[in-house]
Amino acid sequence: MPSDWPSAATRNNYFIAINLQPFSLYDFKVYRESANGIIIAPVLSLTVRTKREGIHQLEAVVCSQTEIVLSWIFDQGSKKRKVFFTVIMTPETHAPIQTDNTMIDIHKLQPSTTYTFEVCTHDTNGKMKRPGVKRSATTYD
């Protein structure tokens, strides 16, 4: 193992890697140490790709005949800035909703109707980035 490689020693069965770059490949190798301190060849090798910056795991939960709750996770990577979202719905029974929250409660929907929600972010100049992440849900009868 070259001396300039980052390394971590732990007696636990896990370690946490922080400050990784979004959408990048990383190779991890787990070595075993013998009783006399000699490092033995890798016993485990894995390659992982970190997720992209942006919206992940958009969920739409139907709460009633007229209400759906949307929630999502937003990963902005190393960029720490104020982020806001626009939620566009089809059919367009509501105007686009702007929020800085990652959960919204949408009321006054029609029963037995399928809605498609698109959650979009905005660039640093405030321009909406499309396409966003989409999810559909149908209100109760």
TrEMBL record:
InterPro entries: FN3_dom (IPR003961), FN3_sf (IPR036116), Ig-like_fold (IPR013783)
Domain of life: Eukaryota
Matching SUPFAM superfamilies: Fibronectin type III
UniProt xrefs under Gene3D superfamilies: Immunoglobulins
Stated name of the protein: Fibronectin type-III domain-containing protein
Organism the protein comes from: Schistocephalus solidus (Tapeworm)
